[in-house]
Design brief:
The longest helix is centred in the first third of the chain and has 22 residues. The chain contains 13 helices and no strands.
Amino acid sequence: MNWAPRKLRRFSAFWLCAIGLSTILLPGCSTTMPWDRKEYTSIITPAMRISAIQESASRASNGDSTEQQRLVEELAMQIRTESDPLVRAAIQESLGDIQVPLARDVLIAGLNDDDLDVKLICCRKLGDRGEPENVPILRKLLEGGEVLDVKLAATDALGNIRSTESVKTLSIALKDRDPALQYAGVEALKQLSDQDFGNDVAAWQKFADAGQITVKSEISVAESVMQMSPF
């Protein structure tokens, strides 16, 4: 006996009756099924925390030193207990643009983060700050047992710090056996110096090891006028 179609018809009829009754008994109610309703929650997601951090940092960048110090202190406290690496990365990204001593301290601490992306951001931001006192910190990354990505980030960062010590430190990258790190060292030296040895690693190595090093400086207004003059 074929009972499957009959059972299916009874099942369909049950749901049709249920929907019809709900329409009749509750004319003001929607017939939307329970699983179609939007659930509202009070949970703060990582994306929401990141957005809040970015908005606060944007406001602080246009504020006074007191407001910036307050924000840095808040973020320094937050990152201590933050478990999401994406949020920690957003915090470090924001701190790198604020010229407050504590912000630099948090960036330095971030070099020991368990997440690689956070460490790379901290390297880049320490270079962007252009502070000569960051050179010894970046040098330790080149001399230590860090992965290649971190050493490359430290090399690139050194290329943004205009100091004699930064040029000398880049010789460590040139002496490395990895051609990618050698290339990064050459590019950083090109950015810092007024020399041009092409991609000759040996020539750049000799230059970096030299006692007297000329670091590229900004062209003065008088030099710019002279270069523009046809005479």
